[in-house]
C-alpha cells in the first residue's frame, strides 16, 4: 500500500502557557500543503517486527525513535515500511507526525485503532490523521476540522540551512517568560474567515536560540517583497498570498542557493 504524508503549515500559533505535564497549551490554525510531502509504502511481513528504510534524508533514524516505526509497532507490527523523505526535518513542517499518521491510515484504513494510538505518538498526530484545514487546541490533540478549506491560497515554503529542535524552542519560550509574538501579519483574504492575522508566539524563542534566523528572514522578506511567518517551531518560513507563488519561488532560488523552497497550495 502506498500513502502520501503532506507537510503542515501553521498559519497561527498562540502558546497559552506551560502545563503540569511539561507540554504547552496552545491554539493553532493549521492546513495541509500540496508540497512538500513524503511517500510511504507498507508491505506485510511475517511476525510482529517493523522494518524501516528511509531514502532522501540521511539524518532521519530508521529505528524505534522514528515516529513512523512507532506508529507501525503500535498497530501490532508485521510490516516493512519504505519512507521517501522530502519534508525537511527540524523545520516545523510536521514531517515526522505526518509520516506516523500516514502509516496509521495505511495499516488501519477504518481508523478503528488509529485514533486511539495517535495522541500517544505525538501532539500533532491526531490532526495529521485527517489533515486539511483545522484548529488545534490543548497540547494539539483537540482538533476541530474546518471543512471550508482555503481555496486560492498560495503558500511559499522556504527552509534555511539551519534547523531547530522543537523541545529546545519550547524550553526557550519558558526561559523567556512566555513571550507573545511581536509581529502580526495581515492575513490574506482566503484566511480571513478563520484568522485576521498570521502570528507565531514561538518566533521570539526561536530567534533567541538561533541568531541567524532573524537576519535570514529580513533578507527573505526583502527578496519576496512580502512578510513571512515562521512555521511551527521553525526554522521554515511561510509567505501566504491570494494566488500562485511560483514567481516568488524563482526569486528565492536565485537569491538563496542553499535554501529549500516550494510553491504550494493549501489542501482540504
Ligand atoms: O508531542 P510531541 O512529541 O510531538 O512534542 C515534541 C516536543 O514539543 C515535546 O517534547 C515538548 O517539548 C514540545 N511540545 C510542547 N507543547 C506542545 C507540543 C509539543 O511543549 N503542545
Essential attributes:
268 residues, alpha+beta, 28% helix, globular, binds cytidine-5'-monophosphate
Structural description of this entry:
By secondary structure, the chain is α+β, with helices and mostly antiparallel strands. It is 28% helix and 32% strand. The protein contains eight helices and twelve strands. Strands 1, 2, 3, 4, 5, 6, 7, 8, 9, 10, 11 and 12 form a twelve-stranded mixed beta sheet that branches. Helix 1 runs parallel beside helix 2 and helix 5 crosses helix 6. The longest helix is centred in the middle third of the chain and has 13 residues. It is globular, with a radius of gyration of 18 Å. The model has no long low-confidence stretch (mean pLDDT 97). Cytidine-5'-monophosphate (C5P) binds next to strand 2 and helix 5.
Please give a quick description of this structure.
The chain is α+β, with helices and mostly antiparallel strands. It contains eight helices and twelve strands.
